[in-house]
Amino acid sequence: GEGAAGAETAGTRSLEKGERAPRIRRAGAWLAATLAVLLVVAGWSVMNHGTGQEPSAADPPLAENGIVVLPFVNLSDNSDLEYFSDGLAEELIHRLASVEALAVVARTSAFAFKGSNKDVRDIGRALGVRYVLEGSVRSLDDRVRLGAQLIDVRNGFHLFSRVYERPFSDLFAIQEHVALEVGAALEPRLPGLPEGLQKPAKETADFPAYQAYLQGRYY
User: Fold this and answer.
1) Is residue 127 classed exposed, middle or buried when 0-12, 13-18 and 19+ CB atoms within 10 A define those classes?
2) Global pTM?
3) Is residue 22 classed as helix, strand or coil in its secondary structure?
4) Mean pLDDT for the chain overall
């Protein structure tokens, strides 16, 4: 009768509720798992933002003819030669700045990164230039060993890397070699640079006087 039908209907509803409960729990579990995956992906993206090799769309444009000469690192045991490594970088700044086709970062801006361990790509982007020239100086008795590297900020690759070992008195020749090699490396990208860099630099042949000049500038 009606009592039996009602009992059957109630039993059916109870069964349907019992079947829906596991389905709801399974759907909730899938939803939780999906959200967890999305959170992991989002966290990875945030942590890795800006660490790739290529600049992001938010990075400012780099001056294609822009270059910064970073302070050369003094690798000698003699800390008194700090004036020498700083002076060498400063002279190279003057040498390259004499070329109209180049946009050279000012000494004060370049030397703000003295002693910094920042990636040269980050330094170049912070200064808005395409190229970074960095190096090191080490004294060996009456000789000096100078290493110089020219780096493309966009990919971090070397355009050239050289080591020069000369007597201290050949500093002018070393500066000339570095400047000319910078020009040779950039010439395919900025035509006409070698001619500009081959202009004779205004310099003195008196090396002790030049050393005194560098010391004076340093102190």
Assistant:
1) buried
2) 0.62
3) helix
4) 74
